[in-house]
Write a structure and sequence with these properties.
By secondary structure, the chain is mainly alpha-helical. The protein has a domain of 74 residues. Helices cover 77% and strands 0% of the residues. The longest helix is centred in the N-terminal third of the chain and has 40 residues.
Length: 229
């Protein structure tokens, strides 16, 4: 009998633990979605940062997750100084593998957008080290795209054109348009104006209605925009 009672108590504790985890996960998803809507759809970065300071939020999200979200907000408004300060804090925190992946990927994209050679190279190397033993096709594809990002935007490596052309033939829609835009950049660096314009026009059709569409239009009006965007 005592044994049976102990088993029942144990099962009850396990059930309570499972319920707690399920509720916590649901709350985390709700909070993260609300924060995302506030920053990206409502375009309210100041409110977003205020929300992250809520004490109640600390009961739902890890400190490292909150710091990553804070960094996301600074990237969004392109506040380089505060982004760097927050990145330094993250470098000294104990992050999970998934948090490291998120951090390095976002930091890489931000560094590339600013044309920062050293930072872009550093974060690409960190991403390489983190994913070096990965066999998941999703992560392999992300790493390959990160290499292309640095190769095109930072190294201006025109030898990547055949690789981009191979990818472009396999893609459709927005992804195809982004690859075409990268191809246009490399043709521009190569000095092939005719090919640059032709590829930009193809990219324009595939990126219509996306956030990248205005960039393509600006580049069509003035090809030198490809140097900085």
């Amino acid at each position: 009998m005592p044994f049976s009672i102990n088993v029942i108590y144990l099962l009850i504790l396990i059930a309570i633990a499972i319920c707690f985890i399920v509720i916590l996960n649901a709350m985390q998803k709700f909070v993260l979605k609300h924060l995302s809507v506030t920053l990206f759809q409502q375009n309210a970065p100041e409110l977003y940062q205020e929300m992250l300071k809520s004490k109640r939020l600390r009961l739902v999200l890890r400190r490292s997750t909150l710091t990553l979200l804070e960094l996301e907000g600074y990237y969004y408004i392109r506040d380089e100084d505060r982004a760097q300060q927050t990145a330094t804090i993250l470098e000294n925190m104990k992050l999970s593998s998934s948090e490291q992946f998120t951090f390095y990927q976002k930091a890489l994209c931000f560094s590339v957008s600013l044309g920062k050679v050293n930072d872009s190279t550093e974060y690409l190397q960190k991403l390489e080290n983190l994913l070096k033993n990965q066999t998941n096709p999703k992560f392999i594809a992300i790493l390959e795209d990160a290499r292309l990002l640095v190769g095109v935007y930072i190294n201006k490596d025109v030898s990547l054109l055949p690789e981009l052309e191979r990818l472009e033939k396999q893609q459709t829609g927005t992804q195809k348009g982004l690859t075409q835009y990268r191809m246009a950049k490399l043709y521009y660096y190569k000095g092939d104006v005719e090919r640059t314009v032709a590829i930009l026009k193809q990219s324009e059709r595939n990126l219509e209605g996306t956030v990248w569409y205005p960039l393509v239009q600006q580049a069509l009006v003035d090809n030198s925009e490809l140097e900085v965007k």
